[in-house]
Amino acid sequence: MFPLRWTFAAVAIVLVAAPLLARPPLFDPDEGLHAAIAQEMNRRGDYVTPTFLGEPFLDKPILFFWAEAISLRVLGDREDAVRLPPLLFGVLAMLGVAALGRALRDEETGLLAGIVYGTMLLPMGVSEVAVHDVAVVPFMCAACAWLTRASAGRHVVRHAVLAGAALGLSILTKGLVGVAFAVWFAVALAAVERVRMRRLAIALTAAGAVALLVALPWYVAMEHAHPGYLHYYFVERHLQGYLTATQRHAGRGWWYYVPIAVGGALPWVGYLAAAARQVRNHPTRLVAWIWFALGFVFLSGGESKLVTYALPLFPALALLVADACVAGPGLRYRPGFVVCASTLAALPVLGLGLVAWRFGGIGATLWLMVALVAAVIGGVSVAIANRRSAGLAADAALMMRLPVVALLGLMIVAPRAAEWMTGRDLAQALNAAGAMPSQVFVVGERIGSVVFYLSPALRAEATAANIRETTLAEAVAGVRAAQPDAVVAVRNDQIGRFNRLFAAPPPPDVRAGTFSLFRAGSLQQALSAR
């Protein structure tokens, strides 16, 4: 058991350290926005209402913003400070999954499940980006673990209170999604072990009451500050967003989460074949499958769908992989091992290939680096396959080298990809000018990261009226009436479309990384020449 704990700790440390060392700029659409909101929270001193450019941001609860604001307050307005909270929430999720596995079966299963969860593609990727979803899983899993212990008759009241506190924090993080998945877990556990049903119902009811007490003060404060907030968030965002096509992410098919569940569970998805065997003889496996199925149906039935919404499904998949390996063929289960090794070897190369295909400009040095990473993973995989098994803990210590090396390879790719997903260069160009233009039209791009990177002087001048995201048509229409110092920022991969609007396309006034900046005065002259 001791070697498995060390492996767990080592993987957790690498998952936090590697992204911090890579230091890619902040991504849009969401990461930059969330960072700018937390930054503004510190500057305004208002820790009740999240705001962006002075306007209330009512779409997300407060807890993740608090974590970001604390980190920015302590470490300064740096990318590391933005990335540290989600990375730590990712580690807490590993601990939550481990605690749930231990409560359901034993410590060995729990530790392996935590490791598997942390190294699955979707959980690992989401933990590297400042989004709220990453903070739901640790609270959800902690609540499920305490509900499991309460239903076994061990300190029922204490465990119910702890589960309620965790659920309350999940409500402050992402609304009711954590509660919904805790309920599905309770249903799955009660279906498999009916003797727990009565205690589980009592514990879940008590936990719900505690959760309400934990979450209520902030929601009441928001309703007081913004009358109608509770109706907007819980009725319009939750209920109507789930049942109707009123949200931005609506209109996707029922099958939307199928490739996300399969692809997001890589490199461990091959082990799920072993987890599908002899399910009735393995209660933990049966609970996890039912939990996953209920959650999958719940998410698939909603009108609004997004990749990160699927994150609460992955603790169940991690538990399935761990239970199958502990009870069955272990980590050397050949179909699982082959999928794991081949996926991790290919991942950095495929990532860099995708960036090259979409944006171009990849040099030979980067290709050589990711090819070397793939070769190392291939060599280590062959060595592991040819080595006699020395037990689950020893195999885990060996195999975890594969996702660690693959992660390092992805960190080579991440900064190059981030160049096309960040507004840092645009903000630096605006900062260099020394004053905020009368208007900044950012074509087809979210502006969260631009705002985050603005200097304090320009940030003080920035408002929702003078910097905004626009379409090409809106930018051109706005330029006609704009002052000559107004700026239109166009991503370089969109320059072809932009130039077609002009008989004689004007050259950019400033180039800023992957952006080209045009002054309104120059564009007005070009438009008048048509």
Give the rounded overall mean pLDDT: 91
- The N- to C-terminal Cα distance equals 75 Å
- Largest sheet composition: 5 strands, mixed
State the helix count: 25
Strand tally, please?
7
Low-confidence stretches: none
**Radius of gyration from the alpha-carbon trace, in angstroms:** 25 Å
Oligomer: single chain
Q: What percent of residues are in strands?
A: under 5%
What does this 3D model show about the protein?
With 530 residues, the chain is mainly α. 67% of the residues lie in helices and 5% in strands. The protein has helices at residues 2-22, 30-44, 63-75, 79-104, 107-119, 121-127, 136-151, 156-174, 177-192, 197-225, 229-243, 257-264, 272-275, 283-301, 314-327, 334-359, 364-386, 392-399, 401-418, 424-433, 448-453, 456-461, 472-481, 495-499, 520-528; strands spanning 51-52, 55-56, 440-443, 467-470, 487-491, 510-512, 515-519. The longest helix has 29 residues, at 197-225. It is globular.
